[in-house]
Structures are given as structure tokens and as C-alpha cells.
Amino acid sequence: MTQPSGHAAVFSGGSWGTAIAKVLGDAGTPVVVHARRAEIADSIATRHRNPAYWPDTELPPAVTATTDPVAALDGAQYLVLSIPAQSLRTSLAQWAPHIGPATTIVSLMKGVETGTHLRASQVIAEVTGLPAYRVAVLSGPNLAAEIMAGQPAAATIACIDEQAAERFQAACHTSYFRPYTSMDVIGCELGGAVKNVIALAVGIADGMGLGHNAAAVLITRGLAETTRLAVALGAHPATLAGLSGLGDLVATCSSPLSRNRTFGTYLGRGLTVTQAAAETRTTTEGVKSAEAILELARAHSVEMPITEVVTTVLQHKVTLAEAAAALLQRPPKPER
Ligand SMILES: NC(=O)c1ccc[n+]([C@@H]2O[C@H](COP(=O)([O-])OP(=O)(O)OC[C@H]3O[C@@H](n4cnc5c(N)ncnc54)[C@H](O)[C@@H]3O)[C@@H](O)[C@H]2O)c1
Ligand SMILES: O=P(O)(O)OC[C@H](O)CO
């Protein structure tokens, strides 16, 4: 298979991977999707459709696909990674030897690795040995279904090499997708990872029928604890008020399209974690990342009460009523 020159290799034939392939293709960037399943790769390559995730939406002609990771990476200007955060290390280790010297890696993943507490860009740097300036992240209010439908959205592309972020910005800027750049990788990534946990909390409250005030409290105080953690780890506070922070938090916590919010709603209605997982059967990053984020926060003496309560609910250590009470009955304090 001969690859188009300077293409983006999108490693994921899943929900967001396919959507970003469409965005890149619509922006005029040649794309090679790497899908694990032959029927997905074949269908994208020959019919420009992903039958498993987005059967009704046609992908641009600039998007093709393969199951061969080496072929997908050959000559790639970008390696765009969009697989579940907890599988990143193992999968990337297999692909890393085939990453070219001019390839920039772009992470779309919104999770923190269990055990190590590393953000996806840190895992990427560790596994590939690449310097941080060759690793960018893209994050924001990006519900894949809306983007596949061509509805307007924006995102933040963060990289310590601003010009690398600008190049990817140009590669994925379309009439419906407006990327901004940033050099705050830490803030951008943590905003994306923690909002999944807050969306679980909002979903739980929704499932319990606690009302819109409670949802607004969780979103607002969720942003406060996300910002505390991110700033403690070196992020700029303004990043958390931006698209990858507040923007993504609002979209995810408000939309029934969110898998994390939906998962929380199942828990709030009384389902167990196993039952909720069986209902959703998709990547729900907050479920796995919650404990890792809490451990990361504790290691830096950062208080994250909502994340803590969500973690105890996921571990079935408290009842839902006890979880709500644990938040409401915390000692009174100033708002900050
Ligand atoms: N779906 C969205 O709306 C959306 C939007 C923004 C960011 N994200 C983030 O993108 C990431 C991927 O989410 P998604 O929604 O596309 O998930 P998904 O489940 O739809 O797709 C995941 C893809 O990863 C592949 N995969 C699964 N396990 C793998 C493994 N062990 N090794 C290699 N590949 C594996 C699957 O085959 C699939 O192609 C997550 O971190 C998520 O938070 C998702
Ligand atoms: O469906 P979720 O909960 O994984 O959220 C999807 C995106 O991250 C929203 O920006």
C-alpha cells in the first residue's frame, strides 16, 4: 500500500478516531486510519464508511484505512492516538519502533494511567522515548456524534512546541471544527481526564433525581477541584477555564451523548458497576481513571472531594445516599 505523503495516521477505528479522521480529511489532510478489525479497515478504504461506529456518515475521499500499523505509519507526519488510555502503553510499545523521525504524535485520549498516574502524553514520551516537543494533545468539548454530523465544535491543541501545535491546527481546521493552540499540555490533558469523573458524578446525581441545582454544583465545584489539581501539577489556571476545561466539562456533564454521564446515570438508578458497564459497552474513561486521579491528587496533597466520592461509589464502598451526604456534610468553608 502506497501512502499519501505527509499524512495523518489515525490509530483507532473507533468512535473519536473515525470522527477526527473525518475532520482531518475535510480539512484537506490525507488520512490513513489504522483499525484492528479488517472489516472496518476494508469498509473505510473501499466504501468510506465505518460500519461499526458511524455506518450512516460518509468519510471524505482523503481518508483510507489499513490493519497494518507499519504501513499506516510509513511517512506519517502525524500519529494520532485515540485508543482507551489504559491500553495505550501496551499497544504503543508495538507501534513505537515504526514511528518515523519526523512524526509528531497527537494524543486524543482523556485518561490517567492506573498504577503510574501518568497522563497519556507522559505515557507516550515514556514508551517512545520521544522528547516532549514531539507530543501534542487535542482536547475540548468534542462529542464525536456531533462532530460526525458536522455540527460546530472547537478544541485546544497543546504542545510545548507552539509551531507543532499550529501545524496540527492547520491540518484539522474545517468550517465546523475550530482548533485553538496552547502550550499548556498539563492543563489541557487534566481538564479532559478529570471531567470524565465529574460527568460520572453528574450522571449519578441525575440517576438519583437530585435536580439541576445539584448538577450545577457538581460542575462548578468539579471545575474547582480540577483546577486545584492541574495548577498543583504546573498548569495555568486559565487553561481550565478554556475549551479543554470548562468547555469540555459543560458538554460532557450536560449531554446524554456522553458515555461517562450515561454510565453515572445507570449507577444513580441503582445499577452496579458491572451492570452499568454491560449497558454501556464502550470506552468510559472516568471509571478506570477516577482512582488514579485521586491517588495523583493525594500524592500532591490536593483535595478532590467529588473525585473521592465517585471513587468510593465505583468501589461500592458507600451507598448512593452516603455518597451524597459525604459531599453535603463536609465542613463549611469559603468558596475557592
Ligand atoms: N467518543 C468521543 O466522543 C470522544 C471525544 C473526545 C475524546 N475521546 C477520547 O478518545 C479516546 C478513545 O475513545 P473512543 O470514544 O474513540 O473509544 P472507542 O471505544 O469508540 O474506540 C476505541 C478504539 O480503540 C481500539 N482499542 C481498544 N482496545 C485497544 C487496545 N488494547 N489496543 C489498541 N486499540 C484498542 C478499539 O478497537 C477502537 O478502535 C478516549 O480516551 C476518549 O476519552 C472520545
Ligand atoms: O462520551 P464521553 O463521556 O467519553 O465524552 C466524550 C468527549 O470527551 C466529550 O468531549
Order of helices and strands: EHEHEHEHEHEHEHEHHHHHHHHH
How do the strands line up in the largest sheet? 3-2-1-4-5-6-7-8
Distance between the termini: 56 Å
Relative strand content: 5-15%
> For the record, what CATH class of the largest domain applies?
Alpha Beta
Please estimate the helix content: 40-55%
- What would the principal axes of the Cα set say about the shape? globular
Q: Give me the count of strands.
A: 8
CATH topology label of the largest domain:
Rossmann fold
Q: What's the mean pLDDT score?
A: 97
Q: Domain count, please report it.
A: 2
CATH superfamily of the largest domain: NAD(P)-binding Rossmann-like Domain
If classified by CATH, what would the architecture of the largest domain be? 3-Layer(aba) Sandwich
Radius of gyration: 19 Å
Structural class: alpha/beta
Bound small molecules, by name, code or SMILES, are: nicotinamide-adenine-dinucleotide, SN-glycerol-3-phosphate
Low-pLDDT parts are none
Largest sheet data: 8 strands, mixed
Number of helices: 16
